[in-house]
């Protein structure tokens, strides 16, 4: 794989993470616990979908085969999506959604920060825009985790359970594959090993503030980066792509 | 189980540097930090502000509507207190 080709796929993968989490969060609209929380989640979801649009458009331009953002989002089958398994996990209860957000966003902020220093201007530019949004998302989600973890006995136990059960999806974030290696070496991209250390440090601090115990690293799920997804993903994609699949080429 | 409502907070937003904060509305929130983020997410989505104040609604000391006449009407008679005798130059904005 040429470095240019790898960067294009890497951008697509970043778009996949953003789109899938955005889709998950938009599912929370109309079922949020409070009106204000509802607005916040809708904002975050649209932030993520906006980021996906930038990554996909950029990937399409680099690829040069005439694919646009919609082609990437609506016309690819499940196995061509390369998002992390963590972001496709169902919303569960509110604490599950918050833990998923904290685990991913504390990683994503570090990844974007590294990308702003990469040698590819296009990707660095998108990362610089996205990181401002995600820093705020992380502030919001980690405040909630502290509130729930350090709240009542019931809320503490429930988010501890969420943390324990989602933990097995965190290992995948730091296992570098061919794309990660090429982007790191050829474009001064993120070093996942360094990020893993910083991430653990950041998450430990949030967990401590939330009086939660850090889970042990046991078996870790993987496959998202290769297009092997959990059973939940097909349903998410069916929801997302239904309109384009039913009425091909439909536009607003 | 009865649902306990979160306290109400009043939201004040300063739209740009140099202007004062103006009342924008209110939000429900469980604590001060949440009030600030909720205010940000509810009232500054379209780039409305550069600064936010929130304060719990029950901490605001307000004048009594029934005392309106005693409170405010005496000032109406004292026209010498009103700066209506000056011409404001067109160039002065935001006054």
Report what the structure shows.
The complex is a heterodimer of chains A (252) and B (95). Chain A is mainly alpha-helical. Chain A has one domain (3-246): Ferritin, core subunit, four-helix bundle (Ferritin, Up-down Bundle), CATH 1.20.1260.10. Chain A has ten helices and no strands. Chain A is globular. The mean pLDDT of chain A is 96. Chain B is α+β, with helices and mostly antiparallel strands and 95 residues long. Chain B has a single domain, classed as Roll (Ubiquitin-like (UB roll)). In chain B, 22% of the residues lie in helices and 21% in strands. Chain B contains two helices and three strands, in the order E-E-H-E-H. In chain B, strands 2-1-3 form a three-stranded antiparallel sheet. Chain B starts with 7 loop residues before the first strand and ends in a 19-residue tail after the last helix. The model of chain B has no long low-confidence stretch (mean pLDDT 86). The A-B interface holds A 34-37, 39-40, 43, 136, 139-140, 143, 147 and B 6, 27-31, 33-34, 37-38, 40-42, 45.
Largest sheet of chain A: none
- Would you tell me the structural class of the helices and strands of chain A? mainly alpha
Summed over residues and divided by their number, the pLDDT of chain B gives a mean of 86
Helices and strands of chain B, in order, run as: EEHEH
Give the helix proportion of chain A (percent range).
55-70%
SSE string of chain A, helices as H and strands as E: HHHHHHHHHH
Count every beta strand of chain A, where a strand is a DSSP E run of 2 or more residues: 0
Q: Which quaternary structure do these chains form? A: heterodimer
The side-by-side strand order for the widest beta sheet of chain B comes to: 2-1-3
Low-pLDDT windows of residues of chain B: none
How confident overall, as mean pLDDT of chain A? 96
- CATH C-level class of chain B is Alpha Beta
Which CATH architecture of chain A? Answer: Up-down Bundle
The rounded Rg of chain B comes to 19 Å
């Amino acid at each position: 794989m040429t470095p240019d080709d790898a960067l294009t796929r890497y951008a697509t993968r970043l778009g996949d993470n953003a789109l899938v989490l955005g889709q998950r969060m938009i599912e929370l609209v109309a079922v949020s616990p409070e009106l204000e929380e509802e607005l916040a989640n809708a904002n975050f979801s649209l932030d993520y979908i906006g980021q996906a649009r930038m990554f996909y458009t950029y990937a399409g331009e680099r690829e040069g085969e005439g694919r646009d953002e919609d082609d990437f989002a609506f016309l690819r089958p499940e196995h061509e999506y390369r998002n992390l398994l963590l972001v496709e996990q169902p919303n569960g209860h509110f604490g599950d959604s918050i833990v998923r957000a904290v685990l991913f966003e504390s990683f994503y902020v570090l990844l974007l920060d590294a990308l702003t220093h990469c040698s590819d201007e296009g990707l660095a530019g998108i990362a610089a825009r996205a990181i401002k949004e995600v820093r705020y998302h992380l502030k919001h989600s980690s405040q909630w985790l502290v509130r729930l973890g350090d709240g009542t006995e019931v809320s503490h136990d429930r988010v501890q359970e969420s943390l324990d059960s989602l933990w097995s999806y965190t290992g995948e974030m730091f296992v570098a594959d061919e794309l990660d290696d090429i982007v790191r070496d050829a474009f001064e991209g993120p070093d996942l090993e360094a990020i893993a250390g910083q991430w653990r440090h950041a998450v430990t601090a949030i967990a401590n503030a939330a009086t939660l115990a850090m889970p042990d690293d046991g078996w870790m799920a993987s496959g998202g980066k290769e297009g092997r997804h959990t059973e939940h993903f097909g349903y998410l994609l069916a929801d997302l792509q239904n309109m384009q699949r039913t009425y091909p080429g439909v536009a607003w | 189980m009865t649902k306990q409502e979160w306290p109400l907070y009043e939201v004040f937003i300063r739209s740009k540097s140099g202007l004062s904060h103006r009342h924008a509305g209110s939000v429900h929130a469980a604590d001060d930090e949440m009030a600030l983020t909720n205010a940000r997410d509810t009232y500054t989505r379209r780039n409305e502000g550069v600064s936010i104040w929130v304060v719990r609604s029950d901490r605001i000391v307000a004048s009594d509507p029934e005392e309106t006449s005693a409170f405010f009407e005496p000032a109406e008679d004292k026209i010498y207190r009103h700066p209506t005798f000056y011409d404001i130059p067109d160039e002065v904005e935001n006054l």
